[in-house]
Amino acid sequence: MMKAEPLYKQIQEKIKSKIQSGELRPGDRVPSEKELAQQYHVSQITSKNALIGLADEGIVERIKGKGTFIKKNNKYSAAAPLAELSYKGIIGLIIPTMKTQVDQQLLNYIEKYVRANGYELIIRITRESQIEETNAVNMFRQLNVKGLIIFPTEKATYNEAILKLTLDQFPLVLIDRYLENINTYSVSSENLNGTYQAISYLLDNGHESIGLISRPNTNTATNERISGFEKAFLSKDLNINKNLWCLLDFDIVSKQAIETIGSFIKDRPDVTAVFSMNAELAKYTYTAVREIGKQVPQDIEIVSFDPTRNNAISYIQQNVKEISKTAVRLLVKQLNDEYEPERLFIPVEFVKA
């Protein structure tokens, strides 16, 4: 921010910029005077003046007892110029589940950025079925969607329907997982680096017998996380004991998974920490540890890739907002007749319990 400009004006420009980018849309709540003051390290009088000025310009509406909201048809909203350009078409989103916090955030942000660019979003959930994934691709092609964002299933084999999209240079972005040796657009988290940070943290805290709870290694995300696990051990010249790795079948039900993990840990009394490949497995692990009479983290420390909403479990935080924003940006590039496939990796953050 420019120092010559009054502080309340700087805050106003930040809010206007977020409206123009689509990050804030008509009807969205704007942070309160107190929240803005904390965010920008200013007095509450300054943040109040910023909101009053925006209200005077017709950009926000202040509703007593409820808060401040972006007004419809304001001159900075991405919706205003897009309305003049007319509706651009439909984007399809194919996603394996809606069970996790990450899945839900992906849908939220992708829909937000798709609409900010003048398109509408239709979603199809595959429930980790490649058959459903193929059906979804075919359905969207029949609907003449402009482009697709696909979160591929966990299965080991490439889906021929996705391969055909790539060969046809159909506007496509893969998220979370990508196709090795296939030249297409993709956006993933830094799975390897994130897992390396987490395992290094455990090793630095005296844990050497670290269990690994995972699904079978059938996709790039799992493979990268395993590589990060191994890299942490190798960087400290420590042996990797794969006897401490518990691989669960894809179709195993929760009760059976908990029992399997519990027996696995009970049979390996030297284990003092466990890394779970995702939040769902971390929840199973936590329940299993408690059911065999141990405490988390006092007896066994658990680290998860993705948050579990359990304060006893450390985790790796993906930047879902940036993944979504980048995926939509790469798709829009293709819709504007640019085709130079990129494979991008978004940084993650390790969050200690």
From TrEMBL:
SMART domains in alphabetical order: HTH_GNTR
Keywords (A to Z) from UniProt: DNA-binding, Transcription, Transcription regulation
Q: Which residues form a coiled coil?
A: none
**GO MF annotation: an example:** DNA-binding transcription factor activity
- PROSITE patterns linked: HTH_GNTR
Query: Known Pfam families for this protein?
Result: GntR (PF00392), Peripla_BP_3 (PF13377)
Can you give the residue ranges of the HTH gntR-type domain?
5-73
Q: Which InterPro entries match?
A: LacI/GalR-like_sensor, Peripla_BP_I, Tscrpt_reg_HTH_GntR, WH-like_DNA-bd_sf, WH_DNA-bd_sf
Lineage top rank: taxon:
Bacteria
User: Which SUPFAM superfamilies does the annotation name?
Assistant: Periplasmic binding protein-like I (SSF53822), Winged helix' DNA-binding domain (SSF46785)
Q: Identify this protein by name.
A: DNA-binding transcriptional regulator, LacI/PurR family
- Native source species: Sediminibacillus halophilus
